[in-house]
Amino acid sequence: MGALEDEAAAWEHFLALLRGLPDPVDFVTHGWLASAPPHIAEADARLADFVGRHPGAFERRLAAVAGDPELWALLGRYPLLQIRGALGQTLEALDPATLLRLLGDVRGRLNASMLNKVVSLFAEDCAKRVGADALGGLDLAPELRDALRCKITCEPLPDILPDDVHEMSADEIGEALAAYMGMTIAELETRLAPGGVSQTGFLAPGERIGEVIRRDARTLHRLGVARHALAERLEGAWALEPVIGYQHDPFHTCDVYEQTRRGGAEFVVENQSTGERLRGGDLLPSLIRRACFFEGSVHYRVSPEALVRVLGLG
User: Fold this and answer.
1) pLDDT tens per residue across span 137-153
2) What is each CA distance from 271 to 162, 216, 310, in whole angstroms?
3) Residues in CB range of 240: below 8 A, 6 or more apart
4) Could you tell me which of 155, 105, 106, 146 has the C-alpha nearest to residue 127?
5) What's CA 179's distance to the chain center, in Å?
6) CA separation (Å) from 96 to 91, 134, 280, 310?
7) Least crowded by CB within 10 Å, which of 179, 241, 271, 291?
8) Bridge-partner residues for 194, per DSSP?
């Protein structure tokens, strides 16, 4: 068959390749996870050839149809390993920097499931090819840059807000978090409200993220307890209980804890002298450490006063 010469033909070829993949069971049965069948490898090679001869064209098409239902129905049908095996040459031909910049542009149009699939299928490999040090030179939202860096280096996620956050105004805190997320404060607070990234929410309706964090940061400062020390003590003292479901970090649009599976448990911590017990979500130490965020007036909030008291830091 001849070479693909235009973007429309290349895109239809891509969808036809996905539609023609064997059922996942057949891939395992016939040992095709390690190497794709010849006809699939040939189709992949034709698409990779087009991508290489038309820099940026296929990447832009991917971004333009990021939320297309048919595309996600096809991608959702197969395990990631199977898709990687079928599209190995095409994935290698994509320009990593271009694709990462486009991902940054479209991430707001994707739900969490779609975005995690995109990151796992395309972005992680692209980030590795670009290199962790070069990610800072791309026009990406800081949260996405940090997430990709964390995925390829396994380094801890950096703090979002400074140690002296208690000296910042509520507006300054909100603006700093919004800039980190690459969205407006209103968009961030909608994301944190009930029904956003969590059914129960990280903020109660009407609460402002800057006001909540400023209040709790000033409380910690008054108590003379550093938030990093508090988070470390909590992790050293808690007992974890698995829960049904999984909660993503609210300050990242893709999953940053897929390796450790943090977000799938509740903690219980008890003061052995008084018998006082506290319960909360296992994301809390990270939220405290990185943003001095104890959550708003919602189900999983644990107040800094209570945490300091039960952990014996007061």
Assistant:
1) 888 899 989 999 998 89
2) 30, 21, 5
3) 265, 266, 267, 268, 282
4) 146
5) 16
6) 9, 11, 39, 48
7) 241
8) 198
